[in-house]
Amino acid sequence: MGVAGFPDRGDMVDKPRVVLGVSGGIAAYKACELLRRFTESGHDVRVVPTASALHFVGAATFSALSGNPVATEVWDSVHEVPHVRIGQHADLVVVAPATADLLAKAAHGLADDLLTNTLLTARCPVVFAPAMHTEMWEHPATQENVATLRRRGAVVIEPAVGRLTGVDTGKGRLPDPGGIFEVCRRVLARGVQEPDLRGRHVVVSAGGTREPLDPVRFLGNRSSGKQGYALARTAAARGARVTLIAANTQLPDPAGVDVVQVGTAVQLREAVLKAAADADAVVMAAAVADFRPSAYATGKIKKKDDKEPEPIVLVRNPDILAEVSAERARAGQVIVGFAAETDDVLANGRAKLTRKGCDLLVINEVGERKTFGSEENEAVVLGADGSENPVPHGPKEALADIVWDLVVDRLD
């Protein structure tokens, strides 16, 4: 065994070293699922629970799942100086769940157990996944502690909305362990870089709008929402407060993201304008229908023998991207659009960039088996300043990171 319970580097194929802190809340049992995701994906994990956490999950469980010893006190294995070494040798520290008490101690630099000592000595990225009752999360003291931690460079994931302990429901639920893992994966991929979107509010639209014809039919498109969700996940991992406006997707909510569900283009417009009021950046990745039926049939449209159907009259939908670009809610707001093209991709993209008035336009070539529903993407990001950034074929998260890089360059 190497330093502070981690195996020696020579005994392993340079696995990323992760410290999983667990504080004393009922959601502590979910840390086992997060631990499993880390170990099964090749990370070496040292679990550091608080004494209170062990009331919910025993040390033997954490030790068996991680393959490493578990301790809560600075007096355990003192010859290894664990209160210093664990944080010094970690590539990532994640605390899930992070209670109000743990957040307060971390914000004020208190160190009365092994986990809080580890947080003080860590020089790697730190992620907190809070879980507590709504009133505790919304209390000014907790909000100030969260703001302090974010200002110092920590990533504090927004809690989810849902069922809490007992009959209570509200914001404060621990995000899904899979979502927390995705945030941590992105933070690890960026290494020791500062979360450059901390303190920023970004709005992302995703999915495809549906315009109803009758109670059972609609006009829609093939957008899965995967690129918009990748943008939301990567922004959260870079420290942003993220509002994701999702149109007809079948994807799980990303951890730490406020999700607003919409159906039609008109509903999406209303949600975007509301969320954009205090946003630093708006990224319109949703595929918004250009037209909608002029009339909605309250009953199912039926076939009539030997008669052709009545023509469907279409009317224009609002141009949301052009509207938010022309009427920016605040000075310095960065607007990003997406355009799906099938031919003359760059020429059409340049024309659309000028017409829409946005700062950046991401151009995708689409078609059968291209882009829609895929886990990968390739694009060209055009800038109003004449810049042109080709993005080679690769994961949609890679494109998302490049988009945020370009947005950060244009903020302020």
From TrEMBL:
Which cellular component, as a GO term, is one annotated location? Answer: phosphopantothenoylcysteine decarboxylase complex
**Cofactor requirements of the protein:** Mg(2+); FMN
Q: Give the E.C. number(s).
A: 4.1.1.36, 6.3.2.5
- Show where the DNA/pantothenate metabolism flavoprotein C-terminal domain sits: 197-408
Matches recorded under InterPro entries: CoaB-like_sf (IPR035929), CoaBC (IPR005252), DNA/pantothenate-metab_flavo_C (IPR007085), Flavin_trans-like (IPR036551), Flavoprotein (IPR003382)
As to how many cofactors bind and how, the note says: Binds 1 FMN per subunit.
Q: Does the keyword Flavoprotein apply?
A: yes
Q: Identify the metabolic or biological route this protein is part of.
A: Cofactor biosynthesis; coenzyme A biosynthesis; CoA from (R)-pantothenate: step 3/5; Cofactor biosynthesis; coenzyme A biosynthesis; CoA from (R)-pantothenate: step 2/5
Q: Which UniProt keywords apply?
A: Decarboxylase, Flavoprotein, FMN, Ligase, Lyase, Magnesium, Metal-binding, Multifunctional enzyme
Q: Under the GO molecular function aspect, what terms does this record hold? A: FMN binding; metal ion binding; phosphopantothenate--cysteine ligase activity; phosphopantothenoylcysteine decarboxylase activity
Q: Name a biological process GO annotation.
A: coenzyme A biosynthetic process
Q: Which reaction does it catalyse?
A: N-[(R)-4-phosphopantothenoyl]-L-cysteine + H(+) = (R)-4'-phosphopantetheine + CO2; (R)-4'-phosphopantothenate + L-cysteine + CTP = N-[(R)-4-phosphopantothenoyl]-L-cysteine + CMP + diphosphate + H(+)
- Cite the residue spans of the region called Phosphopantothenate--cysteine ligase: 202-412
Region ranges (Phosphopantothenoylcysteine decarboxylase) = 1-201
For whether the record's keyword set contains Membrane, the answer is no
Q: Which residues form the Flavoprotein domain?
A: 17-162
Annotated positions binding CTP: 290, 300, 318-321, 338, 352, 356
Q: What does this protein do?
A: Catalyzes two sequential steps in the biosynthesis of coenzyme A. In the first step cysteine is conjugated to 4'-phosphopantothenate to form 4-phosphopantothenoylcysteine. In the second step the latter compound is decarboxylated to form 4'-phosphopantotheine. Catalyzes two steps in the biosynthesis of coenzyme A. In the first step cysteine is conjugated to 4'-phosphopantothenate to form 4-phosphopantothenoylcysteine, in the latter compound is decarboxylated to form 4'-phosphopantotheine.
- Name of the protein in its database record: Coenzyme A biosynthesis bifunctional protein CoaBC
Source organism per entry reads Streptomyces griseofuscus
